[in-house]
Amino acid sequence: MDGNGRWAQQRSLPRTAGHRAAETAVIDVIEAARSAGVEWLSLYAFSTENWNRPGAEVEFLMRLVRRVVRKHAPLLLARGIRCRFLGVADPRIPRELAQDFDDLAVLTADNRGMTLTVAFDHGGRRDIVEAARSLIRSGTPADEVTERIFADHLPFPDTPDVDLVIRTSGEQRISNFMLWQVAYAEWVFPEVLWPEFRAPDFLACLHTYRRRDRRFGGVPARTNGDPS
């Protein structure tokens, strides 16, 4: 969800105004995904690298995220959305915010409409390192380690591989996001800044994805006797 700062800058506003404006986009996309039948939606809200931002901005983000979580918990529960939080390992996260994350996860644990994973204090490399440590602690022999077994040691191992990554504002970087799970993901880079991203933009990205030929390293199926 990229472009909050640039959105604010274009309007001669502080960066925090862009983060505040992003709330509407978040809720709109969640509703659009659920209505479109998306079963798994992940939002990259705060990375391990985002701790390098100015302290005042980080503090604002922590307060903003807490307000958003508490405000929209009833809506997420009513919509049948199961909420999970990927990361949340850094001790700098306020205890109250971490507790709100836990409370929302427990509140929505039995929902089956859609799984919403919020990546907060998330880093793909860290997840892979932690999975390797978990494998070592389990005593799994090296020659028995497979991709499936390794994936079972990642956080939330029931999460399927990512099909589509949408990165707004035209930026074209992975930025340490779910590195294991995005191995065969399709990518779409809409130019719109995140605070202006809405349901029609999201649905346009889904349409782009559905038009792509997903071969996973193979070749297209033959049609009408065409051997190409």
Q: What does this protein structure show overall?
A:
The protein is α/β, with parallel strands linked by helices. The protein has helices at residues 4-10, 15-35, 55-78, 95-107, 124-138, 147-151, 199-210, and strands spanning 40-47, 81-87, 114-122, 164-166, 186-188. Strand 2 (81-87), helix 4 (95-107) and strand 3 form a beta-alpha-beta unit. It is globular, with a radius of gyration of 19 Å. The model has no long low-confidence stretch (mean pLDDT 95). Catalyzes the condensation of isopentenyl diphosphate (IPP) with allylic pyrophosphates generating different type of terpenoids. It comes from Streptomyces griseoviridis. Homodimer. This is Isoprenyl transferase.
Distance between the termini: 39 Å
Radius of gyration: 19 Å
CATH superfamily heading: Decaprenyl diphosphate synthase-like
Low-pLDDT sequence parts: none
Gross CATH architecture: 3-Layer(aba) Sandwich
The side-by-side strand order for the widest beta sheet comes to: 1-3-2
Q: How many individual domains?
A: 1
Categorize the overall geometry. globular
Tally of DSSP β-strands: 5
pLDDT averaged residue by residue:
95
CATH topology: Undecaprenyl pyrophosphate synthetase
Percentage of residues in strands: 5-15%
The chain-level structural class is alpha/beta
Sheet with most strands: 3 strands, parallel
Using the coordinates above, name the CATH class.
Answer: Alpha Beta
Number of helices: 7
The residue fraction in helices comes out at 40-55%
Question: What is the succession of H and E elements?
Answer: HHEHEHEHHEEH
Subunit structure: Homodimer.
Cofactor: Mg(2+)
Protein name: Isoprenyl transferase
Family: Belongs to the UPP synthase family.
